[in-house]
Amino acid sequence: MLTRELTGDFKMNNVHFLPSPSYVEIEGLKTLVYHGTSLDSVIHSIAGCSYSRPEEAMIEILKRRHVSPIYGSHPVMPSRSDALVMPDAPDILHMGHVHKNGLADYHGTQVVNSGTWQGKTGYQEKMGHTPTPGILPVYETKRATVTTIDFNGL
User: Beta strands of 21-74 (E only): which ranges?
Assistant: First the structure.
């Protein structure tokens, strides 16, 4: 739970705090939003996945219908149901975490990794990550396409 000290400036009717992952329906489109922490374990465990193409790891997650499919990589909270299971494929799967833009379509699900606004950190340099700061993906509902706006150099 976030404290009032942290959320005080966000007390508006159009701002909602959600758990990760969460399903959000906007304009009839079911969107699964998830921070993407499990991308690390998927990238390290599945051949063909890399930090330079996070959309490929996201497609592997979609194939397995679970946002954290590598058992043992992340703490598990015991419960009667698994909130990380995807009962249905979403129209849009949106993640971040790796700070690298990635776009793909997988069997009708638009896969979007939104990149970052932060430049390369020392940690990313050490890990060999190359972030894509300042590139905003924009989903156009009428055409069901994603375009990007590059804020670098503006």
Answer: 22-26, 29-33
Q: Which two tokens stand for residue 34?
A: 């998830």
At 110, which amino acid appears? Q
Structure-block tokens of residue 128: 């060999």
Q: Scanning the structure block, which residue is given the tokens 């992952």? A: 21
Q: Which CATH number fits domain 19-74+83-150: 3.10.20.30, 3.60.21.50, 3.30.200.20, 2.60.40.420?
A: 3.60.21.50
Tens digit of each residue's pLDDT (9 = 90 or more) over 27-55:
899 999 999 999 999 999 999 999 999 99
The reported pTM is 0.89
Summarised one tens digit per residue, pLDDT across range 80-91 is: 888 899 999 999
